[in-house]
UniProtKB/TrEMBL annotation:
Keywords: Lyase. SUPFAM superfamilies: NAD(P)-binding Rossmann-fold domains. It comes from the Bacteria. Its EC number is 4.3.1.12. This is Ornithine cyclodeaminase. InterPro entries: NAD(P)-bd_dom_sf, ODC_Mu_crystall, ODC_N. Pfam families: OCD_Mu_crystall. Coiled coil: none annotated. It comes from Kribbella aluminosa. One of its GO terms (molecular function) is ornithine cyclodeaminase activity. Gene3D superfamilies: NAD(P)-binding Rossmann-like Domain (3.40.50.720), ornithine cyclodeaminase, domain 1 (3.30.1780.10).
Amino acid sequence: MSDGIWLRFLSGPDIDALGLTRLEIVDAVEEAVREHGEGRTAFEPRVHLTPDNGGIGHFNILRGHLDGLGEHGISGVKVVGDFVPNYLRGLPSELAMATLFDPTTGVPLAVLDATMITAARTGAMTTVGARHLARRDSKILAHAGARGTAWWNVTMLDDLLDLDEIRVTSARPEFREKFAADLAVELSTPIRVCATAAEAFDGADVLVEATRLTEPEPLLRTAAVRPGAFVVPYGTVSAVELDLLDVIDKVVVDDWREARSGRFGSLRRHVDTGRLSPDTLYAEIGEIVAGRKPGRETPTERTLFWHRGLSLLDVAIAHLILRRAESADAGTMLRFH
């Protein structure tokens, strides 16, 4: 393959066969977050492409570069669809494709099925937030939402924390029951299925809202956030009350520019109404990971982490996959030019 330009195509099954561990993914994401906190990245907030399809879904386009990967860094672009009704067709709500490029020549290096990357990097970012913002003695995890990123959120948090109970809920009973059954096979922590979000969140130490609403609805009530709680609301459509931030001691985002961009996001109303602003924001997570600001400082602090999905994380995991695939000679080499 010395003639021309070749790139590596990695399908979903190719990636699954590489056997990446959850810890490897979390560590790769944390390193990308650290680079962001140190200013060794380049990226732009996501942009949306919304076809005239009756509002059933849209595309997100994410672009990013990390200085610390490879000889000269690595650049990448991901396109991910967000189509909530896909479950009716037996498809994931989010299907994604990523491309990696040499930042010194523009040569494309790889094309990857990024569907797993999208879900795993979200769970990994939740877990990086928990590493720095949750109480290490947290015992009860409550998770609202049972599709897509839910598996990675719960399993990665269970890897990190010595949990006594995991509570799961979803609007559809068949989804929450199957999710709980799948988790019970993978984890030793007791799983409790809850009929409502209120039941799941009541008295929990870690509260993750990952629902797939089509209209705003306050599923995570402010009163459910007890002292010492760690809250992660990141549904595309808001599922929290407007006064939620009034009880939070530290509000952390993945990136402030990203938090202000677009028209989606769990705390979009809080940004639009000025409740979340540079004055009320405590930090970007990169500042904490890089050691520029402390994370959790007391056991009674209520902390909140809102992450919208940094392109840098997709690039970091895609690069990890590419390097593993190169070592295993996995995937298919395609002639580009």
